[in-house]
Design brief:
alpha+beta, Beta-Lactamase, 18 helices, 590 residues, 22% strand, single chain, five-stranded antiparallel sheet, 3 domains, six-stranded antiparallel sheet
Amino acid sequence: MSSMTEARSVGDRTQCISALFDESSLGFFFAGTEGHIEYLNFEAARIIGFNSVGEACGQSLQDIESVLSCGLIEAHRSALKGRTFRRNEHRCTNRNGHFAVLSLFCSPYRNDEGEIDGLLGIIQDVSESYGRKSDLERAICELSIMAEVSDALSSAVELEKVIRIILTGVTANQGLGFNRAFLFLVNESESILEGKIAVGPSCPEEAGQIWSQLALQQKSLTELLNDYLERQNAASSPLSLLIDGWRISLSEPSIFNRVLNDARGANVCARDLDEPSMEILRRLHTENLAVAPIISKGKRLGLIAADNQITGKAIGDADVQLLQTFANHTAVAIERSRLHDDLVRHAATLEERNRQIAESQEQIIQIEKMSIIGELTSSIAHELRNPLTVIGGFANLMLTAEAGQYNSEYLNIILSEAKRAESVLHQVLDFSRASRTESRELDFKLLVSKTHELLLSKMRRSQKQPVLNHSDRKMLIWGNSDQLQHALYQFMALSVEEMTGECTVEISTHVEDGRALMRIRFTGAEQARKKVTTTLNQFFGSSTGTQKLSIIVAGETIRYHGGSFGIEGSAGNMPGIYVELPCRNGGKNA
């Protein structure tokens, strides 16, 4: 009698549940305390994988759980203890082998007396919404990656930095997550693709070391992009050496050229490929490669290739599409970098031309000044020459007259100083005539040799002749040959007139730091050293006031030509004279 009552009770319960949920769009099911399905609607049967409702009734939750693995046994235990159970977005395969994403909610079912009679559950197939959600999350992730890469690229103008940022984004786990990335750029002049830079580990051991270190650091993509310079230099990495110097002809029918010509990325697998394409895969030691062309306004700039050679993960079409997006960013960044380089070069050219114009203007001013000085000195020299001639002439007359015997000492002084003044005027007139010639390229050694010969021709036989030693290196300068020879002669003549009586003189030429150098050095005893020191300090000291006019004019000539002069130490603690002038082309012709 009790069994009949119980059956009636179960039938009433099932009939009641059926009336509530048969037409529902959600999947409802009921399992008794023993864990067997007593009711489910059509939607629940379809989701689980039963062909009909009748086929499902009586099935145990254990059997269904063995297929779905969604927690039905745990849910049944929870219901019998009066607790609810929830599982969201569980990915599984149903009894018919159909992949689905399920959400499950179960609660205890109580009878009229409030006792728990079993489990009432809702099962829902959320595959479509889960897919849309996944697509949305993936799109958001991709946009985030692109935004971070674009932000990093906005502050990079050097081509190498641009390339490193792009390849870091391709290989970073927070980015596209490829194991390795390679960049090839088009050389239009030679019609070839050139291997430039590669990023990524060269072997599994290196990969493990790098990836474990990055995992410990837990850096964001932005942080990785910002500190890429702290990592190993890509230009000298083993992976970069793999493609360094690799030149692929643009006329060769390889997969790289097809990708460039089609302006579309490709998922390359090691099957059904021509020999040039297989050679590319063999050289990169890979069988699956994503390739994306770098195109800007129809112009082929190069391509990015990436693979998962370390992990062996297959490359999907979505990966290729995302790599192509990176390649598009690369095209814009490379074009901007090249425009910046062109602008920098153009600015440098303009700056150099402005400098040359300024120098030309300064040189014109200096030439005008020198011309004016030459004319002025010539005029003054001519004006002084006549009075000096008269003074000298009358001094001679007085010496020959009878009255001259009483004042001969003073008359000789007057005559000597008049001749000395005439000598200075001759030097000034020589400089004035030199100022009228034009500047040109000069052989400094030849100029020194000619000046030395001129000095020897004017020396007295009793004087010690200075020795001339030349450097073997060629020395080209730019200047007025007459002015420079006049200046060099004054320095040489000074050394001979004042010091050859007690010491020997050596004149030599050298090239140092892009400048042609003439040195005048002295050797002699202690007494000679003291005289040389005193004399040079008189003529080159800034505060003595005794410097010769000829040396003043010679010094200004050297400065006008961009050179310098002065005293320097030499062997035996004896000072020497140096004169230096800039070599043409910075001394590269030396």
